[in-house]
Each structure stands twice: as C-alpha cells, then as structure tokens.
Amino acid sequence: MKEIMSSNVMVQKRFTMKKMLEIYQAAKKLDGTTYLYSRQKAVEATSLSKLVSFLLTVEPNTTLKIIMEGTDVEPKLNQLTKLLTNEASVLRVKRKRLIESSESFQI
Questions:
Q1: Are 76 and 26 within 8 A, CB to CB?
Q2: Do residues 93 and 81 touch, judged by C-beta distance below 8 A?
Q3: Is the whole-model pTM more than 0.85?
Q4: 16 lies in a domain?
Q5: Number of domain units in the chain
Q6: Are the C-beta atoms of residues 12 and 88 closer than 8 Å to each other?
Q7: Mean pLDDT of all residues belonging to the chain
Q8: Is residue 107 situated within a structural domain?
Q9: Domain assignment present for 105
Q10: Which Gene3D superfamilies does the entry mention (predicted)?
Q11: What is the pLDDT of residue 81?
C-alpha cells in the first residue's frame, strides 16, 4: 500500500552542487515520488535541472518541506533527511498517511 510522509527542515546554509546531486540520486532510488516544497514552489526531486534551479533559490533560514509518496518511504525519508543535516536542521517529521492506489493527489 502506498503511503505519504513529509519532513520539515530549516535550511541553515546554501546547498552545494555535490549535495544537490546526492539529493537527486537519493530521490531517483525511491520507488515513488519525492517533492521539495518551499515558499509556494514545489519541484519533483527526480528532475535534476528543476531541482538545481529550485535549490539555488532557497535562502538560509527558510523552511523546506520534503514530501515522499510510495511504498515503505519512512527509511528513505530518514535517509534524505540525514543528507540534509549539514545544510539544514530537522524541524518535524509527519507520520504515515496510507492511501489507496486508485486515489491520487495534486500539489
């Protein structure tokens, strides 16, 4: 069954290109979808060009929301949150929300 989880992190400093590539690679490994959301802008993390341009606009002291949808996303969300620990501090992790596979949502 698919589930959706999110995590809010506070960005402490700008992202390096190396860190952006690590986020991209972690998102590509997920059997599902990963979105990053900040200041009314959302981007799917599996599109490298969109991800880089999005992360370049994220200022320090900004809240960044990581949203993951798929199967067994909790360990992958934790892994991605750990990738961000040098650049950001974790504010909150929301618990699982199970959805039926026939249902969908739009951001």
A1: yes
A2: yes
A3: no
A4: yes
A5: 1
A6: yes
A7: 82
A8: no
A9: no
A10: HPr-like
A11: 80
pLDDT tens profile 64-74 = 898 998 888 88
Name 2's Cβ contacts closer than 8 Å, sequence gap at least 6.
Answer: 32, 69, 70, 71, 98, 99, 100, 101
CATH number of the CATH domain containing 72: 3.30.1340.10
Number of residues written out for the chain = 107
Helix or strand holding residue 83 (H, E): helix 74-83
How high is the pLDDT of residue 105? 59
Give per-residue pLDDT as tens, 70-107: 888 888 888 888 777 666 565 555 555 555 555 555 66
Structure tokens that stand for 8 in this block: 């809010």
For 29, phi then psi, to 5°, come to -75, -20
In a domain, 104, yes or no: no
Residue 75 has φ and ψ, to the nearest 5°, of -65, -35
Domain encompassing residue 32 = 2-99
